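Design job #97: recover the sequence.
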């Protein structure tokens, strides 16, 4: 017979063993281009976790389905120098009496939760022990990843590259003012700080207009439109030098204190202290990553916006390609081992279109995904709505039922029922843009009764793909 003391020892030994085998900390990074749905995703995720297991609203998350998820608590974040994710503010917006979307955010922020669960291990089941996982969630703009290629380009090469992007007539039109005032700069004359600041401002205005008027995301340098804590810093006072033609002297050969050399040295400073620093201080510490992609808005806006998003995604994925270019691996030692691509705002389309949305997403990321797999990273593609703002149903159309959505139109407080159209299952061809295309309206979030779970589409699958294996 086993004595009580030896049973206790056995239990303690088993507990130590499992404690050691459990990975008790995970850093989950959430990114995506501006307005992709990062804040909504993090707010909904934290809300589901803080609500605890009472609602059974997350059946696709294994630990919740098996009744092993015991609850979560918000705890102080680990890094005091990083801004906190404004959870309280965002959840108040979504769960308030007059629900509205959280404000746009800038830069990086983080939030820490402790999640309690009962491990699946046979050993633990007998001991009836609980375990804790510390989850750090980090929000950062996908635009910052678009700066990675800058690390491989000299100032001269970057300027040349930016000149090529001006071949696109719509961009060139918006760049006119900048090109005019920049054309007056003598690259070989002594640098005039004020003049450079003025031209740099015109360049920034051009980038901001490319973003707001053309819906473009592929913007370099990324911090010019999303400066975060660098707002107003002289570090952001430079621009590509695109006025080489006709110059008799190569500005690379100019005197030390000339305008060209100042631009070049600021560019190099940006490479070193902004781009590299982000990878060094943040990126290399991420364990898991979700990339949110709003494929629907560019479908609404038009061909150029969609193609620009495609280029931006391909570039973003370079940051997860640790094999082929070798650049990332050489400079940093990233450790992300799971990557989820999520088409966000799936509640904008009827459920019969979700398969097409997923297929479209898969095609958008197919090249990057292949390389990601080659780098040994597990990846998944899903279509989600972090905060479901519509009800799916059907309407009678010419005597037959037709899928439809009902929701409150954003800014109008009017309940409407509509069919937003078909999502192309493949990358849209010319005929799609020439035809009626796709047309959706933005919806306001629904009112959520206190203590009721936040309505969502496949948030549980997102959690399962991102963190499922951490709860075994
Ligand atoms: N219907 C619906 N709309 C959403 C959802 N998630 C985000 N949105 C819409 O997309 C907008 C942007 O969402 P955010 O979560 O603020 O996106 P973000 O990526 O944090 O944006 P920035 O902070 O500006 O970079 C919101 O204001 C909503 O209009 C969703 O799940 N469903
Ligand atoms: Mg945000």
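Job complete. Output follows.
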């Amino acid at each position: 017979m086993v004595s009580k003391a030896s049973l206790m020892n056995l239990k303690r030994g088993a507990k130590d063993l499992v404690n050691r085998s459990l990975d008790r900390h995970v850093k989950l990074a959430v990114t995506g281009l501006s307005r992709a749905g990062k804040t909504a995703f993090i707010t909904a995720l934290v809300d589901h976790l803080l609500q605890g297991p009472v609602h059974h609203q997350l059946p696709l998350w294994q630990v919740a389905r098996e009744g092993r998820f015991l609850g979560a608590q918000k705890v102080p974040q680990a890094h005091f120098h990083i801004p906190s994710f404004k959870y309280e503010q965002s959840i108040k917006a979504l769960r308030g009496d007059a629900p509205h979307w959280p404000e746009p955010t800038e830069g990086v922020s983080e939030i820490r939760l402790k999640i309690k669960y009962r491990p699946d291990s046979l050993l633990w089941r007998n001991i009836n022990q609980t375990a804790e996982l510390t989850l750090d969630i980090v929000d950062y703009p996908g635009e910052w990843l678009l700066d990675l290629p800058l690390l491989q380009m000299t100032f001269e090469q970057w300027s040349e590259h930016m000149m090529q992007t001006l071949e696109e007539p719509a961009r060139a039109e918006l760049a006119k003012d900048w090109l005019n005032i920049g054309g007056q700069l003598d690259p070989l004359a002594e640098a005039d700080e004020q003049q450079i600041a003025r031209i740099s401002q015109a360049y920034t205005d051009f980038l901001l207009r490319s973003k707001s008027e053309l819906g473009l995301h592929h913007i370099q340098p990324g911090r010019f439109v999303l400066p975060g804590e660098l707002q107003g810093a002289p570090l952001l006072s430079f621009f590509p030098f695109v006025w080489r033609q006709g110059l008799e002297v190569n500005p690379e050969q100019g005197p030390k204190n000339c305008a060209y050399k100042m631009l070049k040295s600021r560019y190099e400073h940006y490479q070193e202290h902004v781009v590299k620093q982000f990878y060094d201080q943040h990126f290399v510490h991420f364990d898991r990553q979700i990339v949110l992609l709003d494929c629907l808005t560019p479908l609404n806006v038009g061909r150029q916006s969609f193609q620009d998003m495609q280029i931006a995604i391909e570039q973003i994925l370079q940051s997860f390609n640790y094999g082929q270019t070798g650049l990332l691996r050489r400079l940093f030692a990233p450790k992300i081992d799971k990557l989820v691509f999520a088409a966000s705002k799936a509640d904008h389309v009827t459920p019969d279109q979700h398969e097409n949305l997923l297929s479209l997403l898969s095609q958008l990321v197919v090249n990057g995904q292949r390389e990601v797999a080659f780098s040994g990273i597990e990846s998944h593609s899903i279509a989600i709505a972090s905060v479901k703002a519509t009800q799916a149903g059907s309407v009678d159309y010419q005597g037959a039922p037709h899928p439809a959505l009902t929701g409150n139109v954003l800014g109008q407080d009017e309940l409407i029922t509509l069919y937003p159209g078909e999502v192309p299952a493949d990358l849209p061809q010319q005929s799609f843009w020439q035809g009626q295309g796709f047309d959706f309206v933005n919806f306001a979030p629904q009112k959520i009764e206190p203590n009721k779970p936040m309505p969502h589409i496949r948030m549980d699958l997102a959690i399962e793909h991102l963190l499922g294996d951490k709860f075994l």
